[in-house]
């Protein structure tokens, strides 16, 4: 990938003198979905797939963006004086948003850039290509302009830009996972205060398999922001009877004892998911520490049921993938991963069952849905770097 972006850079901009190449990973979340904006816990890991950028400073204030994933768009030209969101800007709204967010914090770029990107995260798969792009942008800005920011700052800036520049009301999980990834470890993150620990995710005799439904989701203008406001409404009503800062502060028992304060039935279901999913995530990490992979898998399965029934962010295609996965011998657990409404499932599959899993789930999906699923046996990698 490094050679590919360099070759493309040379082809577009004449030579590669003074060019640096950077990488930031995508992520998969093992458990803890839609808990990150509810003050709960999440358990994502960075992947070895992600986004690459070849970048060079310019002498003027121009910004030239080129993506090998969207070659039909050609070079998209803008400047440091045009850091405003627009539909016409397409995917460049993500890096521009990060540049804008740096400037908001008093870190202004003194010259423009030529940038060539190439990502090997499937677009719209729910493996956080957008967070990968945001963290990548923050990382090369820090490196090229000497900005004094930590990787946790990069996660916060990425989330801030996506919330305030792109209008997507996401939590911090995706950016944090990309910025703070560690090889062979998942990140047990408490989103209420950003305290975290790395938990080894070396699955003895099993693999993590991501299955792409090839149903594209677009969350920015979707139900995602609706779910968030439903949770906020539930929290507000719960706060009239119990002292909490977020839904993640409640145990299941406390929730059941106080849920009558929530007036709307739908909001009750949304809050229930946030509370129960948070507790599942805490228990899942405990299970992993005790080498109890069976319990971890059961909690993954329960997570899917909750996301399907209480949070209602699954869809028919994803449900088929999960149902078919559950039928295969050697599948320890399987669930939807990411924001929902399409995208991917994540499954833990015993080594000897991986090929059977791909074959059986793939055939059943084709038969029941009429679409082709793609399978990735993923590895857990590190955070962003200069290559």
Q: Would you spell out the secondary-structure blueprint of this structure?
A:
Blueprint (H helix, E strand, L loop, with lengths): L1 H12 L6 E10 L11 E2 L1 E14 L4 E6 L8 E4 L13 H12 L8 E7 L9 H17 L5 H14 L8 H7 L5 E6 L4 E6 L5 E7 L10 H16 L13 H7 L6 H25 L3 H17 L6 H12 L3 E7 L6 E7 L3 H16 L4 E5 L6 E2 L1
Parallel strand pairs: 4-6
Antiparallel strand pairs: 1-3, 1-13, 2-7, 3-6, 4-5, 7-8, 9-11, 9-12, 10-11
Helix pairs in contact: 2-3, 2-4, 3-4, 3-5, 4-5, 6-8, 8-9, 10-11
Please describe the structure with a list of short key phrases separated by commas or semicolons.
11 helices, 40% helix, six-stranded mixed β-sheet, 387 residues, 13 strands, alpha+beta, Ribosomal Protein S5, domain 2
Distance between the termini: 11 Å
CATH architecture of the domain at 2-31 and 45-191: 2-Layer Sandwich
Q: For the report, how would you describe the main beta sheet?
A: 6 strands, mixed
The Cα radius of gyration reads 21 Å
Beta-strand percent range: 15-25%
Low-confidence stretches: none
CATH topology of the domain at 2-31 and 45-191, by name, is Ribosomal Protein S5, domain 2
Shape: globular
Which structural class matches the secondary elements?
alpha+beta
Helix proportion of residues, in percent? 40-55%
Mean residue pLDDT: 94
Major beta sheet, strand line-up:
5-4-6-3-1-13
CATH class of the domain at 2-31 and 45-191: Alpha Beta
Order of helices and strands: HEEEEEHEHHHEEEHHHHHEEHEE
Number of strands: 13
**Number of helices in the DSSP assignment:** 11
């Amino acid at each position: 990938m490094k050679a590919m972006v360099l070759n493309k850079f040379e082809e577009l901009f004449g030579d590669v003198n003074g060019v640096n190449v950077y990488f930031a990973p995508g992520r998969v979340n093992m458990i803890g979905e839609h808990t990150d904006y509810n003050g709960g816990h999440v358990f994502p890991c960075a992947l070895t797939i992600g986004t690459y950028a070849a970048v060079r400073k310019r002498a003027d204030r121009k910004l030239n963006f080129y993506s090998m994933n969207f070659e039909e768009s050609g070079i998209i030209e803008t400047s440091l004086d045009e850091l405003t969101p627009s539909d016409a800007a397409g995917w460049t709204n993500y890096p521009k948003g990060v540049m804008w967010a740096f400037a908001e914090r008093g870190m202004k770029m003194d010259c423009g850039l030529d940038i060539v990107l190439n990502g090997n995260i499937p677009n719209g798969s729910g493996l956080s290509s957008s967070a990968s792009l945001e963290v990548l942008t923050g990382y090369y800005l820090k490196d090229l302009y000497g900005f004094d920011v930590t990787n946790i700052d990069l996660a916060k800036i990425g989330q801030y830009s996506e919330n305030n520049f792109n209008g997507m009301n996401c939590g911090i999980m995706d950016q944090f996972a990309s910025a703070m990834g560690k090889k062979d470890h998942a990140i047990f993150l408490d989103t209420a205060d950003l305290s975290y620990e790395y938990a080894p995710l070396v699955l003895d005799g099993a693999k993590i398999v991501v299955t792409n439904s090839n149903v594209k989701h677009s969350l920015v203008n979707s139900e995602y922001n609706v779910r968030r406001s439903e949770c906020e409404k539930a929290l507000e009503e719960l706060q009239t009877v119990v002292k909490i800062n977020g839904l993640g502060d409640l145990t299941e028992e406390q929730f059941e004892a106080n849920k009558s304060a929530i007036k709307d039935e739908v909001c009750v279901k949304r809050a229930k998911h946030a509370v129960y999913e948070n507790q599942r995530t805490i228990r899942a990490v405990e299970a992993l520490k005790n080498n109890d992979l069976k319990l971890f898998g059961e909690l993954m399965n329960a997570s899917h049921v909750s996301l399907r029934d209480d949070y209602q962010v699954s869809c028919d295609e994803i449900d088929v993938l999960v149902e078919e996965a559950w039928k295969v011998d050697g599948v320890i657990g399987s669930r939807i991963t990411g924001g929902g409404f399409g995208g991917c499932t994540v499954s833990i599959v015993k080594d000897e069952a991986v090929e059977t899993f791909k074959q059986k789930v793939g055939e059943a999906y084709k038969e029941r849905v009429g679409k082709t699923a793609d399978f990735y046996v993923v590895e857990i990698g590190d955070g962003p770097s200069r290559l």
